[in-house]
Please model this.
Amino acid sequence: MTINAILIDDERKALAILKNKLERLCPNVIIIAETQSPEEGIQLINKLKPQLVFLDIAMPKMSGFDLLSELESPDFEIIFATAFDNYAIEAIKHCAIGYLVKPVDNTDLVETVKKATQNIKDKSALQKNKQLIENLGVQTFQNKKIVIPSQEGLEFVKMADILLFEGNNGYTNIHFMNRKPILSSYSIGYFNNLLENQSFYLIHKSYVINLSYIEKYLNEGYVIMPNNHKLPVSRSRRQDFLNALKH
Model:
């Protein structure tokens, strides 16, 4: 599947390197335009209707996030490029959007383009991009959402509504307070990495819990959660877990 792409980065050298890598490593990506100006980037996107946009985050006057929010219907797949900006990466990961850390690694580029190609086939970009814009304007944990790939498609759920993640043979059951669980084909490790800076904790190789919902910790190494969940805490994690609770 060939993909029409636009590259937007204020650094000329970064644009040249990315273009060269794409031409060598990702022949299915056809570069139809490139620019160092985010303002021109908006015009190019509206005119050329690309399927994929490589978008730098840290640009003067207008960031990549600002550019995205200026578009009326951002229905293209995005691969963000960023230096080590933890807030940016966290926001992007929550919405299952691709990103590359500069300097761009060849293997990461190929894998990210491969995922973007599949996402373009699934036609889920508009929902994810709108959710990212919404999350960026939300400051409280209670109202932020994550995107959960499930058997039926994509589920957009508030982080605060999640009770726990239960890993099972590479799949993950996501349990909630007031609705039926969701089964995701993503592993529990994926969700643990996704929420590592939030109010969640990996108490066991099979369980990530929302610390806000703990009802009781038992000295023999179990936590009691709502809806009759009694879950083990790994011996190797108990002391760190208790320290996390205190803080």
User: Anything to note?
Assistant: The first helix runs from residue 12 to 25. The radius of gyration is 20 Å. The chain has two domains: 3-136, 141-246. The chain is about 35% helix and 30% strand.
